[in-house]
Amino acid sequence: MSTPDRLVAKLDQLTSVEQRDKRYPSLAAAVLRDGELIWEKAVGAADVEAGVEATPDTQYRVGSITKTFTAAAIMQLRDAGKLDLEDTLDQHVEGAAYSPSIRRLLSHASGLQRETHDESWLTLRFAPPDELLATLADAEMVLPAGARFHYSNLAFALLGIVIERITEMPYMDYIREHLLEPLGLTRIGFEPETPAAKGYVSQPYADGVWEAIDVDTGAWASAGQLWGTVGDLCRWGAFLADPDEAVLAKKSAEEMRTVQVISEHDRWLSGYGLGLSLRRDGERIVAGHTGSMPGFIAWLFFSATEKVVAAALTNASEAALPPLGLSLIGTTVDEWPVAPKAWRAGDPPPADVAPLLGLWFMEAGEMIFRWRDGKLEMSYPDAADWEKPAVFEQETPDRWRTVSGPEHGEALRIVRGEDGSVARLVWAGYPVTREPGVWRAPE
Fold first, then answer.
1. End-to-end Cα separation, the chain, in angstroms
2. Pairwise CA distance, residues 128 & 317, whole Å
3. Which end of the chain is more exposed for a tag (fewer CB within 10 A), N or C?
4. Cα(26)–Cα(210) distance, rounded to whole angstroms?
5. pLDDT along the chain (443 residues), means of 10
6. How is 209-267 classified by DSSP, letter by letter?
7. What is the pTM of this model?
8. What is the CA radius of gyration of the chain?
């Protein structure tokens, strides 16, 4: 199905106006919908001096979007049993001067200072991993660990070192072999490949540009070294929304999108998960990341529920891309929403599950247990449309575990009568009965 002309015209207009009004040397953008790249556009010059126009296949530095790859690699290693998110840094990096947990490093809640302690942005020299570790005691804990969100490139530099120590291979090689290659992201890499944009600083009081500095990030590579195109970034965003389980477990991707800390404390409009930024746009919640390197600004976000991903890249040092990116997502959903999947009759519930289904009560509060898509779930009759049901997985014949939704992590226990029938349930420590009434101790 081809992209509706009306949608193409609106997305083209949004991008062209943004590039003109904000005076970006060039701007590339793309939208992926329901797994398919439906639109991409580039406006302006990738190389001002040479007069080379940008195309959707032009690479740009994507800066801190690199962190999403680092986080996915950490989750892969966790799923393989090589680490635990509650492990401390020194468990995997012997002699490390600080020992925040892997979880706090991933969620920018470690308390470590923002930049590496080698004054790299003053010297434009980024220390290699061994040197960074040898001098780590010089870094500051600017906040107590876990106190609040504090963005830290140093934290993600250390996560890159964790990956190297556990896998015994260079960080860049691991990302290539375990993420880029399996997903076919051929236009994302750690060095630019033609065609690639040059970075610029737009002159504030004239129509000229200055060429931006070029930096090699050293140990900081795991925080911001990658280059990419808008198309491949959209494909990466689609993967994070609904991953190939051969590469990353869906549950792990959901963990990455789960709020760990609030990052904006005045209006609570944004938070941070495990390597993913989370933000509210009206009733819509999107996940992704921004990026900034000298001469480049990047934006990648997706709505997992609406199956839309948008990316925007520019070769300007100063750019506010979130309004454009959110408009690309919102316009696509408004003009061409993804239809929900049709309901299909499924297999009947197993014999031991059938007695659990139907109406139950917690005192007089109604609870409805259903078998849906091969899972036992519970919902409240008066739940809002956006409220998800509790979903359970069976551990033993008489014990289930809540794996998502209300009371996530809590046990659901079956209490049987003398004849072996289900007498009542106990969920998260509360009695659940077939009839409404006051809780009473069993006789």
1. 65
2. 25
3. C
4. 14
5. 94 98 97 98 98 98 98 98 98 94 98 89 88 93 95 97 97 98 98 98 94 90 97 98 97 97 93 97 96 97 97 96 97 96 92 97 97 96 93 97 96 95 96 92 71
6. EEEPP----GGGHHHH--EE-HHHHHHHHHHHHS--TTTS-HHHHHHHTS-SEES-TTT
7. 0.94
8. 25
